[in-house]
Structures are given as structure tokens and as C-alpha cells.
Design a protein that fits this description.
- The structure is a homodimer of 251-residue chains.
- By secondary structure, chain A is α/β, with parallel strands linked by helices.
- Chain A has helices spanning 19-22, 25-33, 42-51, 72-83, 104-112, 125-133, 150-167, 180-190, 215-218, 245-248; strands at 6-10, 36-39, 62-65, 88-91, 116-119, 140-145, 170-174, 196-201, 209-214, 230-235.
- In chain A, 36% of the residues lie in helices and 20% in strands.
- In chain A, helix 4 (72-83) packs across helix 5 (104-112) and helix 7 crosses helix 8.
- Chain A starts with 5 loop residues before the first strand and ends with a helix.
- Residues 239-251 of chain A have low confidence and may be disordered.
- Chain A has a five-stranded parallel sheet, with helices on both faces. A five-stranded mixed sheet of chain A has the order 6-7-10-8-9, sandwiched between helices.
- Chain A has two domains: 6-119, Tetrapyrrole methylase, N-terminal domain (Cobalt-precorrin-4 Transmethylase, domain 1), CATH 3.40.1010; 125-235, 2-Layer Sandwich (Methyltransferase, Cobalt-precorrin-4 Transmethylase, Domain 2), CATH 3.30.950.
- At the A-B interface, helix 1, helix 2, helix 5, strand 5 and helix 6 of A face helix 1, helix 5, strand 5, helix 6 and strand 6 of B.
Chain lengths: 251, 251
């Protein structure tokens, strides 16, 4: 439809793990062919690219930064080379670009300009946590961050719990790692003992630790997730939600 | 904490693509070590396992079936070998087990029995579609299937659109492939011209086709997604949703 290049969306490893371990060959082979990258952080992007087996020298590669502090006017500039026919890769610091990470506005602009967008497979902490939770994976909701301030946060927890209870959906959220323990303590204190809580920490790293059980059980054990990147999920067990989705989720 | 084995959650390729292309090495290496598999479909599981470079003969491998028609009483039986110390792999037909696929109840039971659960990376159509949509990846909701009957379906579409508009969240859903065109036609007919619709079809296969644009534009073009597995996403563009999440999503 035009002569534009392709924008590849490239997942990177989560945590300090060799690129070949969690990034599939197809993704690595495409990275090796590219020389233009839109990245969240140049230093970590360079490290990933050298681990990915790229044989080009750093001088042959071009990096532009797109992070959460982006200026909307820069998006068009970043995509200009693709408009002229160059292929480019979009990378975030760890895991999947555009999902709980920057990149979405770049992709939106690419579609508007008719640049082909190709998403590549790799680790995504949200999906890995959802798989591992044992909670409802037929309907779920990701909220990003909850409010920091205690009253607002507790209110959010209660509203998520209510949502889990009334819809059967798994409710998923994240927190800045140094605030993990505070948030988990609040959930355990204010949640119903029968509500399930899963904390999936250090996902896809050697330190991975996934605990999934009712809040009542969480109350009886010690835990420490301080500074370990974590995904948290709550769910209200309902033996029927895994089946008869069409009936259950009729709105 | 006990002598139980580990339950590995194993993604498989989506579509007819070589296993090494979209399944990372770490996942393949674990598959090669296992000889006990809980699978959605034995035939496709065997095909994947032989493509994954497993050197054991079929006689050395054991398969038990867990699909959407499962009997709850079988879940415990399936996990018995793991309780006794054997490692096992859980596979769905294509993509990620437990997410829009069977497996969740098996994982839930594993947690209850203290069996360690390890989710492995691989392709997930929902996340790949979300990345590629250019829509909000900081907050999103997956609904599974919408109702089939026209009135109920249209009402669902309107409710999803309202949800997208009021929360800024991306609304994600799927359809049985032979009903794709009917559903897309309904969305285009009943949605607001400014609402964005993305159809991500044949994701991670050679026939991948991702179209993301406002409904007003969809109305001007021909499309055909008949029988191609697809993820559909709707979103109400709001230039602010990508930033200031804490403020925006305070509840």
C-alpha cells in the first residue's frame, strides 16, 4: 500500500537472563537485521542488542529515545525514517513494549501513517503472572498502578475486590517494587479472607516466586517482596467461571 | 516445602510455524526434559513436542487430556504424579495455556497442593494484539467472547464502547473465527465513528493482518477476516491516557 518500512515491536528479557533464553529465535533474527531502534533506555537497549547476537558495530546502529517523558512532537520525527522505507524496532527496558510500558503512541502514529506494525513474541509479566495464578484467564482486567495514598488505595482494593466478586474477572495490577510490601499488607488487611491474592514476583528470572492463595491464608504467613518487580492479582473463586463463558459473561 | 514436582505452563506456537521460531529456548529445553504432559489435544501436543526437539519416543511420554469439557474430579488425578515428585507440562492447543484457554483449574489445584508452578514465555495473541493496536496498554480489559444473539451482542458492543470512553481502557475480546465478519460488521454499524477498532488476525502466523483505525474509516473499506483467528480491540482515543496513570486511574 506504500513504500514505508515496518515497525517491529520487540520484547526484551525480564531481569538478568541471557537473551536467547526467553526471546524466541524469530524475534532475535529480526533484531539482527535492524539498525534503527526506538528505545526506552539506550544503555539497556544496547546491552540487549549485543546479547541478541547483532554483529553490527555500535556506530552502525541508530537509537532514539522514547520513554514516559516523551514530547508528542518527537513521535513523528522518530517514524520519519520508516516512512522513507527503513525498518525499525521498538523496545522497552524489560518485557513487552506498549503494555504497562511506553510505546503505544508510536504505534498509533505508525498506523495513522500506514506503516506496517509487527508485534513479536517474548516474555510479558502480566500474562505470565495470570497463567501462573490459577485465576480466571477467560476474563480479566489490568489496572496499572493503584493510588499511593492510603485511603485512596484501600478504596481501590475494595472496589477491585467488589469487581472480582461481581464479574468473576481476575483483577491485575502492579506497584513500584519498593512499595510492594505496603500494598500487599493493605490488601491482606482490608480484603475478605476468601478473596484470592496472587503475588508473582521476579517473573521469568532465577528469583521467581509465585504465591497464590486466599487472603485468610496470607494472614498466617510471613512474606517479603521488597524491591522485587511483581504483578499482583486478586480473584473471587467461583467454580463456574472457567466454563460456560458465553452464558456467564453475557452483558 | 515438599517433595512435589513442578508444573510448567508451556506456550505452543500459534498457527503452522516451526516451534523454534516463536517458542524461546528456555521453554523448549524444559519441554525436552519432561515426559508427563497435561494437554488440551493429544494430536497437536504430540506434533508440537516432536517439533520441539524431544528425543524420547512417543512410548516414553505420557499424555492426559484437559480441555474445556473437563470433569472436576479428574484434576486431582492429573496432578497425582506431580504430588509424588514428577515434573509435568501443561499445554493448550495454540498459544498460552490458562489465558482464553483451559488450564486454570489445574493450576489452582496445584497451588492448593503446594506444587510449584512455573509459567514459561511464548506467544500470546491477546498481548501481541494489544501491543500492535496502538491503543492504551496501561489499562485494559479482556472479556472473552461476546454474546452471539444480535440484540445482546449489540448491547455488549455499546457497553464496551461506553466503558472505553469513560475509563480510557482498551477493551479486548475474541470470536469464533467463522463469526468474525458478522461481529466486525456489527461493531462498525453500531459503534461511534471516532471509536477506534483494531482487528489483529492470524497473529504470529505468516498471514498476520493487523488493522487499527477509527470506525469511521473502517466504514469506507472492504475487509474479510472469515475463519482467521482474530483478537478485536476497541478504544476511545484520549491523548492523556498514556501519561499520568496514577492521576487518571485513581478510583
Amino acid at each position: 500500500m506504500n513504500n514505508a518500512g515496518t515497525l517491529y515491536l520487540i520484547p526484551t528479557p525480564i531481569g538478568d537472563i541471557a537473551a536467547e533464553q526467553t526471546i524466541p529465535l524469530q524475534t532475535l533474527e529480526i533484531v539482527r537485521k535492524l539498525d534503527y531502534f526506538i528505545v526506552e533506555n539506550i544503555r539497556t537497549a544496547r546491552r540487549f542488542i549485543s546479547k541478541a547476537g547483532v554483529l553490527k558495530t555500535i556506530d552502525e546502529l541508530e537509537f532514539v529515545v522514547h520513554d514516559k517523558h516523551y514530547d508528542p512532537h518527537d513521535i513523528g520525527l522518530m517514524l520519519k525514517p520508516l516512512l522513507k522505507g527503513k525498518d525499525g524496532g521498538l523496545l522497552s527496558e524489560a518485557g513487552t513494549p506498549c503494555v504497562a510500558d511506553p510505546g503505544g503512541v508510536v504505534v498509533a502514529q505508525a498506523h495513522e501513517w500506514g506503516i506496517k506494525v509487527v508485534p513479536l513474541s517474548g516474555p510479558n509479566a502480566i500474562i505470565l503472572a495470570l497463567m501462573a495464578s490459577g485465576f480466571n484467564g477467560q476474563a480479566f482486567r489490568f489496572y496499572g498502578y493503584l493510588p499511593i495514598q492510603e485511603n485512596d488505595c484501600v478504596q481501590s482494593i475494595k472496589s477491585l475486590e467488589q469487581q472480582a466478586f461481581s464479574t468473576g474477572e481476575t483483577q491485575i495490577f502492579i506497584e513500584t517494587p519498593f512499595r510492594n510490601n505496603t500494598l500487599i499488607e493493605r490488601i491482606i488487611k482490608h480484603g475478605h479472607p476468601d478473596t484470592f491474592l496472587c503475588v508473582a514476583a521476579g517473573i521469568s528470572t532465577p528469583d521467581e516466586k509465585i504465591i497464590s492463595m486466599p487472603i485468610g491464608q496470607w494472614r498466617t504467613m510471613a512474606f517479603d517482596f521488597h524491591k522485587i518487580p511483581a504483578v499482583m492479582l486478586i480473584w473471587s473463586a467461583n467454580k463456574n467461571v472457567f466454563q460456560n463463558k458465553r452464558k456467564k459473561y453475557k452483558r
